[in-house]
């Protein structure tokens, strides 16, 4: 049985709301019993929420006995310790929804301008993101890359740049190496994303509101690009010519590996998450060597690193069309949503910014769907005023 995280979360939420069908219950049973990994992931996820204090404030939590009936068929005598974890955390499955709240804050009043009890059509002021970008050539000419058409572009040095119908840019590798660096720049607007393959074979995925400056052909002893925003790299291996990503004074140096860098101009931190291989992150004289599954966070203009073990999938799922959140504030989530859906959020109270969430959402869903799921599980509402989405709470 193949289910996305969103599918499983929806099934769990349906059960908590007493709207689940018999078929839905059977699907949930089968998924939990399918393999040890599913059951273990489920238990660990709920354990995290319990440890954070998230689930203590939910009022619609089913009893452990009810959940035990649901997963009764998943007992495995070979792994009693695994199944006992599942039974321990299943009563808290109400906390697992598309986006699950990790905090419960009350608000006594809200400005009368915002009517949170209305049904709003958020599609009126938002758009689902798509493949689009602007390519700036060496001579300064700008080209829009959002027409889904095959095209072939020739640079001044003879390099051929192919843009295919799937909206992916590819630079051909020249047989003879040139002596002078010629740069191109690709900029991704709000509500956009794009991918490209550099002349050395390195693949790059660029997120919304991101810019990458790079040589058309790599010349010399290093391969260096400049990033603002967020990008995922699969670097072609070259042991004699390291690949360097420079962003706001921080450098990420690799020989050949897979990693994600987030370095937006309007955010304080530069975050490097390693998926495969190894990377060296340097900032103002200090450096850290990362191994897979670890993340380095450094504040811009600082030499102080924070290195943590993380689930790298949470930070790279965006290239596969999924938002994933784990212990993130509502402010951080809304910031990501604003870039993809090209919309602005306004918080009526600072306390709402600090609500903590975990969950997943497909990027091709309308914004209405994601916001509705947040409202179902959190004591928070969304309204529209002008061209902004207001985050607050109904007056009781």
Please describe what this structure looks like.
- By secondary structure, this protein is an alpha+beta fold.
- It has three domains: 5-97, no CATH class; 122-126 and 316-392, Phage tail protein beta-alpha-beta fold (3-Layer(bab) Sandwich); 130-315, Jelly Rolls, CATH 2.60.120.1440.
- The protein has helices at residues 5-16, 22-34, 36-52, 64-70, 80-89, 313-316, 330-341, 350-353, 367-377; strands at residues 99-101, 130-131, 134-136, 142-144, 151-154, 160-163, 168-171, 183-188, 192-197, 203-206, 210-215, 223-234, 243-247, 250-254, 258-263, 269-276, 279-283, 286-290, 294-299, 305-309, 322-329, 344-347, 356-362, 381-385, 388-392.
- The strands form three sheets. It has a 19-stranded mixed β-sheet that branches.
- A hairpin with a 4-residue loop joins strand 6 (160-163) and strand 7.
- The radius of gyration is 23 Å and the shape is globular.
- Mean pLDDT is 79; it is low at 45-67 and 73-112.
Question: What is the structural class?
Answer: alpha+beta
Helix content: 10-25%
Q: N- to C-terminal separation? A: 44 Å
Oligomer, anyone?
single chain
The structural domain count equals 3
